[in-house]
């Protein structure tokens, strides 16, 4: 407002007003999100034979069953969501900001997984951009979206969202070849597998095999591999 006056005996004044409207351009925000987790596969291999001992007379036969069990277990862990947050300042002055990044895996914002954000600076010079990185460590793959809110003085918070696509990191082997050479068995497996092989054993009918005490014994070893 500017006022002029005409003094003396006249006593006149008049004013004019210029209205200046100023706007602070808001920061703009873009982000990415990538989810990953580990699937660890472990195998155990067990070989048994039932019965494991036989006793009888020369010429007598006995039946045993060899059993091989391949057991597969999987563990899912090390869930994480990572990405970048690019913030641009279109204003002609520097702007200082705060930032909050969350996943949508909670019933409320308070329960959602919060990300740890690392920015090279929290004041962006006029007309420049910065890129922040973040990591979130949820308990599972519930999250489907990542949200960020960037706030600067003089403007409402700016938001950006990115869909979370999960990628598996396989540790170990999903398939293997189960074999038992004694029976010419070989098969590719990808899940729990049990195989049984019957075998007949016979006491020798050759007298030369028996010592002075009339006793003869022989072991049979069978090895399976995965």
Description:
With 226 residues, the protein is mainly beta. It is 0% helix and 55% strand. The chain starts with a strand and ends with a strand. It is built from no helices and 16 strands. The strands form 4 sheets. Strands 3, 4, 5, 7, 9, 12 and 15 form a 7-stranded mixed beta sheet that branches. The radius of gyration is 39 Å and the shape is rod-shaped.
Could you list some keywords that capture this structure?
226 residues; mainly beta; seven-stranded mixed sheet; four-stranded antiparallel sheet; 16 strands; 55% strand; rod-shaped
Rg, please?
39 Å
- Structural class label: mainly beta
What is the helix content?
Answer: under 10%
Per DSSP, what share of the residues sits in E-state strands of 2 or more residues? over 45%
Give unreliable regions as ranges. Answer: none
| Average pLDDT score | 96
Number of strands: 16
Order of helices and strands: EEEEEEEEEEEEEEEE
């Amino acid at each position: 407002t500017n006022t002029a006056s005409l003094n003396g005996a006249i006593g006149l004044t008049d004013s004019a007003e210029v209205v200046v409207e100023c706007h602070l351009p808001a920061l703009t925000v873009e982000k990415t999100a990538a989810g990953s987790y580990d699937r660890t596969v472990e195998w155990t291999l067990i070989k048994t034979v039932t019965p494991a001992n036989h006793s009888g007379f020369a010429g007598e036969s006995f039946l045993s069953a060899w059993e091989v069990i391949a057991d597969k277990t999987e563990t899912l862990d090390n869930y994480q969501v990572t990405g970048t947050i690019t913030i641009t300042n279109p204003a002609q002055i520097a702007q200082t900001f705060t930032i909050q990044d969350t996943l949508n895996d909670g019933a409320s914002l308070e329960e959602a997984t919060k990300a740890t954000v690392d920015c090279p600076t929290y004041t962006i010079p006029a007309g420049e951009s910065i890129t922040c990185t973040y990591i979130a460590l949820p308990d599972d793959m519930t999250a489907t979206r990542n949200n960020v809110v960037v706030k600067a003085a003089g403007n409402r918070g700016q938001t950006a969202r990115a869909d979370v696509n999960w990628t598996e990191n396989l540790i170990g082997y999903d398939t293997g070849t189960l074999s038992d050479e004694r029976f010419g068995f070989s098969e590719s497996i990808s899940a729990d597998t049990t195989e049984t092989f019957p075998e007949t054993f016979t006491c020798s009918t050759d007298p030369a095999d028996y010592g002075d005490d009339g006793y003869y014994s022989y072991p049979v070893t069978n090895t399976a591999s995965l």
